[in-house]
Amino acid sequence: MTTEQFSQNRERTVKVQNGWMMLVLLIAYLICNIGLLITSIAAGTPRSGPVIWLFLPSLLLLAIWAICLSGFFTLQPNEARVLILFGKYRGTVRDSGFHWGNPFYSNGPRGIVVPSSGSSKDSSSATTISGFATLMMQSRKGLRRNKISLRARTLNGEKLKVNDKRGNPIEIAAVVVWRVQDTAQAVFDVDDYVKYVQTQSESALRHLASQYSYDHGEENEITLRSNSAEVSAGLKLELEERLSRAGVAVEEARLTHLAYAPEIAQAMLRRQQAEAVIAARQKIVQGAVSMVDLALKDLADKHVVQLDDERKAAMVSNLMVVLCGESEVHPVVNTGTLYS
Asked: Which H or E element spans position 170?
């Protein structure tokens, strides 16, 4: 069994001719060609016509001049053009400005789907017009001379419903800032690098969410809710690994939405409220115990009153009720002796 190995392309930066210089040369070329054409007509006779050996070359040179005009192109800052000559990659131009290159560099659209023109009786004229309109739009989009934007782009992902490490359904979304780093890989190694970024970002986010718990993990465990910085760093690292094949660099990746799925949101909210109440009760009890212990020690150290174990227990019980009770306590004043 034989398997084909994937060959990665690498960008090669090349230089092309200055557009303004070539424009001056082509204007001079046109003037000389027009002079040759006029000479061929003037040197001829009304009977025999223009001089053929001068007239025909002038027409040929005029056609060559028209072909050379298609070699002009412009690049804006942070924009590049991939040069393809008869199906072979020749390099990438990254310098902004007015340029001139080989007029036979590929300018045609890539991946255009031509609508079927079959003779089916069920096909209507509206469908045919719509198909050709789509073709024209695709052609217009493709005739950008293989230009690629090198600017940073933002992918604001949609909310995804996934299961976390514990199997709880959650909603998660992320934003990814990316840009094309290697134009050759972006054009030749993947079919559509924009869709590739979208698909791989969604896949990476789903995989990341399944690796961590939403919250309340084990001790020192990273969770989606409590460790957003670590989770975002992990997402960026995974995206860099996935998108490197398309020549895409990830500038930033972070979570923009994180919540339980609607079907368990209410139950999880009640659990969080119960956990908050329990945590608050623990703090209150710990504080009350320390206050009771301090009170008993102060009474004993300062010899204010001598209490036996039974009276100490009663005092501790009363103080705990006062300190831990939710409602205001109304004490009963004892007007007799301590032991009555």
From this structure: strand 169-180
